[in-house]
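[step 3/7] fold_predict: job queued, chain A
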Amino acid sequence: MGIADTARLVSGAVTRKGRMVLQRVPRARERRSSDHASYRARPPIVVTTIPKSGTHLVYQIVTALPDVTDYGTFIATTVSWRSRPRSVRALGRLIGGLVPGEVVRAHLIHHPDLVGALDARNAFVVFVYRDPRDVIVSEAHYLTDSAPWHALHRTFRRLTPEQRIDVAVDGLRNRPELYPDVATRYAAYEGWLEDAHVAIGFEELVGPARDAGIRRIVASYAAHHPGEIDVDATVRRAVDAIAPERSHTFRAGTTGGWRKAFSAEQQRRLVERAAPVLRRYGYDADTDVHESATR
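[step 4/7] structure written:
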């Protein structure tokens, strides 16, 4: 990555952060004037995802829902430039600061206290996940080429492409609190499969079933919202709102790309380490998947 690319990425990050700062005053004003009835009438919408699983895609979909506001809020368990994750208590405080009707992007691990904090704000929660193998490839590219401010950027930049996949599978063995192995990373989010209002795979939203997946999100929100919502019209708006190129983290947005990036040995090691996680999220953990796909 050249100097010009780094400058462009940093400039974009500063611009996004600046927009969020500018929204703090109206957001604080809204929070001060809100009461329990406000949250019942206009539920906050929280899109929580495993990183590199389609956060911006689903954010674009939910911004088409009626009566929502985007203040640029993003709640991450691990802030990209820090070396330690936030505590559950700190995350709970951030959730407590949500305002009625706002759309929030998040990488929130699952914890009963966080579920309770979201329930207290009547938040509508959409959980998005993705095949861990595609996440590994996307994350390796992102940490190497698209996030010069990230605490892991220097580590990944020094590695070969093959080594980056190895680290994304095994985690940082000397810093597991910063970057644990893939099975541990996925297990931290697993409870959202049951506790989110909608749990949906990225693959459903980029394949032939896309419109049905969007309808599932909209219909679930309509059931959660006290007002009358035209589901058909909202689905059409949501489809029209999808524009992947507007995401600074967008790279390919495809599925199954891991088959070209993984060696047979890396696939074997991932299955050995993470087969139960793959199955719990509904993905094929067969050790022959890589071999049959490359014949």
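[step 5/7] annotate
The beta strands are 45-49, 74-76, 103-107, 124-129, 198-201.
Residues 3-15, 247-253, 287-295 have pLDDT under 50 and may be disordered.
exit 0
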